[in-house]
Design goal:
Blueprint (H helix, E strand, L loop, with lengths): L2 H15 L7 H7 L4 E5 L2 E4 L4 E4 L2 H4 L8 H13 L12 H13 L4 E7 L2 H18 L7 E5 L8 H6 L3 H5 L8 E4 L4 H4 L5 H19 L4 E6 L15 H11 L3 E4 L14 H4 L6 E4 L11 E6 H10 L13 H16 L2 H18 L7 E7 L2 E6 L14 H11 L2 E2 L1 E3 L2 E4 L7 H18 L1
Parallel strand pairs: 3-13, 5-6, 5-7, 7-8
Antiparallel strand pairs: 1-2, 2-3, 4-10, 9-10, 11-12, 12-15, 14-15
The structure holds pyridoxal-5'-phosphate.
Family: Belongs to the class-III pyridoxal-phosphate-dependent aminotransferase family.
GO molecular function, one term: adenosylmethionine-8-amino-7-oxononanoate transaminase activity
Cofactor: pyridoxal 5'-phosphate
Length: 449
């Protein structure tokens, strides 16, 4: 069978039997999905043998790159020893204990405990139940509102999609669930109007204060936010945003939940985005980079204040998942952390590759299509516009999709969020590979123009 006909057979079987997530099924039926067959380092290959630079690290997760034998060996060893046991009902196992201890050693100050989950969405479901339980334990069950942000992303389960601020997700299935409200996002390029970025950062953060007053501080349990919005379009908040949010939170007794599912485990050049922005979270949902995506796993890191109430006043926490702390995933996560540490990957991002990406990415701003080129750590975005001055977009709203197609057909995965192109490459990318990524991005911009 030729490569092309084998691909066609796979596409037909996929169309007949697989309902993939976040996919327009009519569009897929017309075209067929690209079949990815292998990965090595920062590259993936499709079923027709094309080599593609994975500028998204899978889905923001393959941080140590593809094909790491150490992770395969760690999984195989653990599978032989103990493929499954649970953390329910007063039992535990070694990989979960060792992993929790290891994570506590790199976590922001004052976070020593870990609640394991199977994904980022499950982590945010856990957050919702944990913050309400925390306040109820202290005789404040009315403190149950959670404030989040429009266009934030916190997962796809009912709680995750409700906490998130994605309108299309809310429209399917009558979300958000009660006692969740959203404030504007700190997206200066798209929504800043005539304000400077710094003015807009303060304005966006002050919307939190307004919302808390509207709901009543006595009714608000927590504020949840990503350090940098990922799925919303790599929205890097203006420098004034987080300091102003911190000032607002200091006025009220409200928990801070920092969703580190993307920023966690090195993406910003610090272990966590909270350290990058000097935040002191009460809870931190994580996933993705925890195992570099080799196996599904997530967690909620729990700060001392919440942990003390849960462990001293909480009684039973009626919440958890069969695969919470799965031993094979935990063994892989431990090995993944060992690789990150032994190879000094997070330091390398901070000192070498993130500054290099920032410089090279900024050069793309001279392209006639690009209204803004921004990065933090190894996250980047390009705003595609018709008019750089006014930030006006092209009519039709499909410039990003066209650019995405040109990228993919020319050997680069770059994602389109509307007309914002985003990247989040594996953390092991080298400066030479950044040159290659930026050259491929420019080629795609030229083809789109
Ligand atoms: N939170 C953030 C910030 C995310 O980016 C994601 C996924 O992209 C999630 C939560 C949900 O994670 P998962 O897809 O593992 O459920």
């Amino acid at each position: 069978m030729t490569q092309a006909s084998s691909t066609q057979n796979l596409q037909a079987d996929s169309r007949d039997h697989v309902l993939p997530p976040f996919t327009d099924y009519q569009a897929l039926n017309a075209k067929g999905a690209r079949v990815i067959t292998k990965g090595d380092g920062i590259y993936i290959w499709d079923s027709e043998g094309h080599k593609i630079l994975d500028g998204m690290a899978g889905l923001w997760c393959v941080n140590v790159g593809y094909g790491r034998q150490e992770l395969v060996d760690a999984a195989a060893k653990q599978m032989q020893e103990l493929p499954f046991y649970n953390l329910f009902f007063q039992t535990t196992h070694v990989p979960a204990i060792e992993l929790a201890k290891e994570i506590a050693s790199i976590a922001p100050e004052g976070m020593h405990k870990v609640f394991f989950t199977g994904s980022g969405s499950e982590s945010n479901d856990t957050v919702l139940r944990m913050v309400r339980h925390f306040w109820a334990c202290q005789g404040k069950p009315e403190k149950k509102w959670i404030i989040s942000r429009l266009n934030g992303y916190h997962g796809s389960t009912v709680a995750g999609a409700s906490l998130g601020g994605m309108k299309p997700m809310h429209e399917q299935g009558d979300l958000p669930i009660p006692y969740i409200d959203h404030i504007p996002q700190p997206y200066w390029f798209g929504e800043g109007g005539n304000m400077t970025p710094d003015e807009f950062g303060v304005w966006a953060a002050e919307q939190l204060d307004k919302k808390i007053q509207e709901i009543g501080a006595d009714n608000v349990a927590a504020f949840i936010a990503e350090p940098i919005q990922g799925a919303g379009g790599v929205i890097i908040p203006p420098a004034t945003y987080w300091p102003t949010i911190k000032k607002v939170l200091a006025k009220y007794d409200i928990l801070l939940v920092v969703d580190e599912v993307i920023c966690g485990f090195g993406r910003t050049g610090e272990w966590f985005g909270s350290q990058y922005f000097d935040l002191k979270p009460d809870l931190m949902p994580v996933a993705k980079g925890m195992t570099s995506g080799y196996l599904p796993m997530g967690a909620v890191l729990v700060g001392d204040r919440v942990a003390k109430v849960l462990t001293e006043q909480g009684g039973e926490f009626y919440h958890g998942f069969t695969y919470s702390g799965h031993p094979v995933a935990a063994a892989v996560a431990l090995e993944n952390l060992r690789i990150l540490k032994n190879e000094h990957i997070v330091t390398q991002v901070k000192e070498k590759t993130a500054p290099y990406l920032q410089k090279k990415w900024a050069e793309l701003a001279d392209h006639p299509l690009v209204g803004e080129a921004r990065t933090t750590g190894l996250l980047g975005a390009l705003e595609l516009v018709k008019d750089k001055q006014s930030r006006e977009r092209f009519p039709g709203g499909n410039t990003g999709m066209r650019c995405r197609e040109h990228c993919f057909n020319n050997g680069l995965v770059m994602r389109a969020v509307g007309d914002t192109m985003i990247i989040s490459p594996p953390l092991v990318i080298t400066c030479e590979q950044i040159d290659e990524l930026v050259a491929l991005a420019r080629k795609a911009l030229d083809a789109t123009w």
